[in-house]
């Protein structure tokens, strides 16, 4: 199976490596998803995150109540207005997550070679000898010799706060384990992961449904991150649930692949989902370490060819406590870009990390450098070959627009779209220049009131590599006369000039619909 690994653009001048990175309006084509939490929820902190390059804010319901997240979201809205930076909202579900219940929140010390009992009896207090868990079916799923991992929520992999257990025996509903390494579990929330074991918990829990139908619907979330997606049916059920909630029936579902079960059914999940999140933290526990890179390359390749956004997690864990990433982490971020990732998702680094803003800007700079040496020519040929012939009308227009832009060295591609599909198809071919997606609102009605669509489509571009949205004036219809489109084009060009990405004598490729025809045209700007 092709892994989609792309060689670097050759040759790379050694002198260019020493050149300082140039600041630009777009820190990188690759997008950054930031998880908002205690260290990143004030208006000031969020504003700094937006300026540093965050384009999607993730709200993780594995911890914190809806009121807490609502307060954070209100701060996000104030920050968006203040910075004039668009930002989408992602709701991350709890899903089939097993947790250790530590009501006292006292630190628990575990010693290597000792024993600890996992029990579903949540009435017991957590201690060095017994750990209550939120799942009563663990004993049925486990057998002697199985491996269990327990770590602080969004663990960074530090062995002093994470523990590996080996099952020694199952006693009724309890699981007795041998402690493999000494560790201190501190805090109120620890997640428990049983390697390569099917856990009989629903993907969309009742608590998840309640949060989505209240907090999610009220705030018109752009993305739903479906934790622990294991089958395509999980995505279908989530979509059916969303379809009943009018305001968020357009919400895109990103399947979060966290274990071998999801990996086994990856192809069918990809068909159903709008995008994929590769949760490398849990996958790194479920898979042997030497297999993780292979899964990453294969999964990213499949997402790229399907034209669906792929998001990668757990890249700079050490920046939770340090100002600079390790050499391995910096290389990992660059390889994620070269492998075809659309976005990087930051978890603990921005949620509770000491340097959320610095983390975002550092990751953005690494992505930007990797994009400069991304072998677009090879990628384009692979994509065209994969799509095959005859191409669909839209696919042909999208690939032609990218080919033309590269041939004439255009500074930007401008695409008029109402659904966002045409712009996403252009981005699928990974042009070397930004794609300005001009979303033209459409008038719609639910038979009670009229409203304009477009805001959802614009914000949902914010997770796609190289795609930058702009919402057009609703008085301009999606398909109209040449004169009307010309006036929107002028607004788009002025927008590009104001951002500093278009200047005099630049060439611009425009993709637009005129009547029943789709047109790709090249414009050379005057003074």
UniProtKB/TrEMBL annotation:
Could you tell me which pathway this protein works in? Carbohydrate degradation; glycolysis; pyruvate from D-glyceraldehyde 3-phosphate: step 5/5
Where does the record place the Pyruvate kinase barrel domain? 30-360
Supply the enzyme class, top level.
transferase
Name any cofactors this protein relies on: K(+)
The coiled-coil regions, if any, are none
Q: Where is the Pyruvate kinase C-terminal domain?
A: 395-514
Annotated EC: 2.7.1.40
Keyword Ribonucleoprotein applies: no
Q: Which UniProt keywords apply?
A: ATP-binding, Glycolysis, Kinase, Magnesium, Metal-binding, Nucleotide-binding, Pyruvate, Transferase
Any single GO molecular-function term of the entry would be: ATP binding
Q: Which reaction does it catalyse?
A: pyruvate + ATP = phosphoenolpyruvate + ADP + H(+)
Question: Family assignment?
Answer: Belongs to the pyruvate kinase family.
Q: Which PANTHER family match?
A: PYRUVATE KINASE (PTHR11817)
The name of this protein is Pyruvate kinase
Q: Which organism is the protein's source?
A: Clitoria ternatea
What taxonomic classification does the UniProt entry list for its organism? Answer: Eukaryota, Viridiplantae, Streptophyta, Embryophyta, Tracheophyta
């Amino acid at each position: 199976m092709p892994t989609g690994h792309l060689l670097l653009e050759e040759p790379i001048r050694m002198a260019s490596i020493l050149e300082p990175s140039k600041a630009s309006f777009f820190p990188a084509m690759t997008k950054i998803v930031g998880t908002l939490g205690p260290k990143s929820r004030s208006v000031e902190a969020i504003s700094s995150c937006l300026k540093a390059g965050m384009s999607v804010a993730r709200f993780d319901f594995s911890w914190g109540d809806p009121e807490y997240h609502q307060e954070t979201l209100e701060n996000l809205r104030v920050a968006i207005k203040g910075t004039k930076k668009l930002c989408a909202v992602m709701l991350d579900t709890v899903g089939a997550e097993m947790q250790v219940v530590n009501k006292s929140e006292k630190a628990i010390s575990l010693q290597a070679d000792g024993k600890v009992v996992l029990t579903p009896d949540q009435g017991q207090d957590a201690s060095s000898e017994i750990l209550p868990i939120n799942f009563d079916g663990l004993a049925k799923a486990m057998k002697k010799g199985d491996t269990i991992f327990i770590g602080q929520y969004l663990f960074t992999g530090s062995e002093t706060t994470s523990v590996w257990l080996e099952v020694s025996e199952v006693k009724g509903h309890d699981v007795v384990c041998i402690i493999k390494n000494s560790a201190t579990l501190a805090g109120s929330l620890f997640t428990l992961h049983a390697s390569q074991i099917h856990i009989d918990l629903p993907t969309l829990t009742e608590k998840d449904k309640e949060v989505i139908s209240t907090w999610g619907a009220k705030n018109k979330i752009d993305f739903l991150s479906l934790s622990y997606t294991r089958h395509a049916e999980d995505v279908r059920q989530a979509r059916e649930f969303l379809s009943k909630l009018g305001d968020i029936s357009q919400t895109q579902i990103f399947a979060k692949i966290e274990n071998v079960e999801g990996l086994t059914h990856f192809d069918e999940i990809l068909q159903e989902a709008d995008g994929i999140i590769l949760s490398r933290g849990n996958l790194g526990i479920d898979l042997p370490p030497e297999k993780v890179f292979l899964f990453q390359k294969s999964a990213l390749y499949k997402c790229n060819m399907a034209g669906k956004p792929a998001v990668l997690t757990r890249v700079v864990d050490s920046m939770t406590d340090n100002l600079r990433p390790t050499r391995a982490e910096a290389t990992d971020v660059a390889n994620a870009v070269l492998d075809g990732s659309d976005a990087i998702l930051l978890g603990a680094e921005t949620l509770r990390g000491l340097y959320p803003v610095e983390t975002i800007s550092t990751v953005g700079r690494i992505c930007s450098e990797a994009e400069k040496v991304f072998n677009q020519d090879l990628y384009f040929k692979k994509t065209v070959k994969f799509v095959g012939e005859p191409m669909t009308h839209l696919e042909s227009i999208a690939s032609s627009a990218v080919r033309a832009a590269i041939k004439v060295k255009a500074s930007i591609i401008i695409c008029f779209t109402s659904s966002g599909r045409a712009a996403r198809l252009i981005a699928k071919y990974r042009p070397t220049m930004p794609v300005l997606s001009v979303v033209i609102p459409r008038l719609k009605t639910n038979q009670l009131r009229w409203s304009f669509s477009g805001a959802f489509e614009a914000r949902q571009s914010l997770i796609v590599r190289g795609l930058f949205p702009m919402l057009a004036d609703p008085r301009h219809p999606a398909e109209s006369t040449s004169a009307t489109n010309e006036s929107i084009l002028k607004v788009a060009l002025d927008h590009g000039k104001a951002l500093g990405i278009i200047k005099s004598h630049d060439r611009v490729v425009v993709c637009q619909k005129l009547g029943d025809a789709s047109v790709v045209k090249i414009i050379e700007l005057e003074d």
